[in-house]
Amino acid sequence: MNIKEFSERVELSSYTLRYYEKIGLLKNIQRNSSGHRVYNIKDLQWMAFVKRLKETAMPLEDILRYAKLREQGSDTVTQRQTLLEQHHENLRLHILQQQIHLAALEDKIDLYKSGKVG
User: Fold this and answer.
1) Which of 14, 30, 55 is the C-terminal boundary of a domain?
2) d(Cα 54, Cα 44) in Å, to the nearest integer?
3) Are residues 108 and 89 in the same domain?
4) Are residues 36 and 78 in the same domain?
5) What local confidence, expressed as pLDDT, does residue 116 receive?
6) Contact in structure between 10 and 41 (CB atoms under 8 Å)
7) Given this model, what pLDDT does residue 58 score?
8) For each of the chain's 118 residues, which pLDDT tens digit applies?
9) Under 8 Å between Cβ of 69 and 106
10) 78 contacts: CB under 8 Å, gap ≥ 6
């Protein structure tokens, strides 16, 4: 698929995709005889994973570190696992904090609903 189709499927702009390619996050993109980028299913799967990491607030530098480790092959599995475990813990703590904030907001809303605040 071309960059327009790929961009639509992964819901990222073509500018972002070219940037990811430039910084090494999206590698080995094939080109057709005209020199246009051609993406495949593995590129889709990789971008879905990258997006998930971004959407869960993993810093881009950590995503890049993960990508570089992944590129080095199976010898880096333990390092990649450790990186993901660290992110998992950070995400778990963030969710816990957000749940506390949500409960505080719900308490305040309930207070307003009760009419006890003037």
Assistant:
1) 55
2) 15
3) yes
4) no
5) 83
6) no
7) 96
8) 999 999 999 999 999 999 999 999 999 899 999 999 999 999 999 999 999 999 999 999 999 999 999 999 999 999 999 999 999 999 999 999 999 999 999 999 999 999 887 6
9) no
10) none
DSSP string, 15-78: HHHHHHHHHTSS---EE-TTS-EE--HHHHHHHHHHHHHHHTT--HHHHHHHHHHHHH-GGGHH
63 touches 53 (CB < 8 A): yes
Residue 37 phi, psi dihedral angles, 5° rounding: -65, 140
Token code pair at residue 51: 């997006």
Task: Find the domain containing 108 and state its range.
Answer: 59-118
The angle, 0 to 180 degrees and rounded to 10, between the axes of the packed helices 41-55 and 3-10 is 40
Same-domain pairing of 81 and 115: yes
In this prediction the pTM is 0.83
